[in-house]
Amino acid sequence: MLELPHVLTHIKEKRGEAFVFTTMGSAREWSKGEIQERDFMYIPSSMGQLPALALGFALAQPSQRVIAVNGDGCMLMNLGALVTISANAPKNLVLCVVNNGEYEVTGHQPTVAHSSRRVSGDISFSEIAKGAGWASTTTVYSVEDLDACDEILFHAAGPHFIELMVKPMTGDVSPRSPGPAAARAHALRELVLSVDLGYPG
Prior knowledge:
This protein has helices spanning 4-14, 24-30, 50-60, 72-76, 80-88, 125-131, 143-148, 150-154, 181-194, and strands at 19-23, 39-42, 66-71, 93-99, 102-103, 109-110, 136-140, 160-165. It is an alpha/beta fold. The strands form 2 sheets. It has a 6-stranded parallel β-sheet, sandwiched between helices.
């Protein structure tokens, strides 16, 4: 299994000019390193909203690659977004789901998709995405698998769905806001307005 910090470092080092949206545990870990102006750490009052946010941005900025790093608990709270995204089919969007089998930031409670909570059968987010109409879905278990995903993660036309199997974090895993959300959203808007990002119209 992967380590979340390794996954995020991999994305940071190879993302190029892509916009990266993170939430909850991923946002907490992402904010520990150097932050770029194309990063948006999203800590909402309710979980599950990141895929819709990333979709809206990807549709508004079709020339820009958008990588969204969501949690498995968050994904469970908005599975309908998978159908909405596949229906719109934004070629510039990559949705990654970090699957550690638990609601990490609220106290490590197992999700209903965790093996300890299942009566039978395996729960696969990548298979759910495939059933929701995504043409490109994959599950990543190892560093080697992650390296092999570089083309679809950073270059190939999407949308792509990538399920990342990671170990739960230990220690202080409470979410940390990187600053006032309104100010950060305003700064992102100003960046989009001030730079030629290929806005349609």
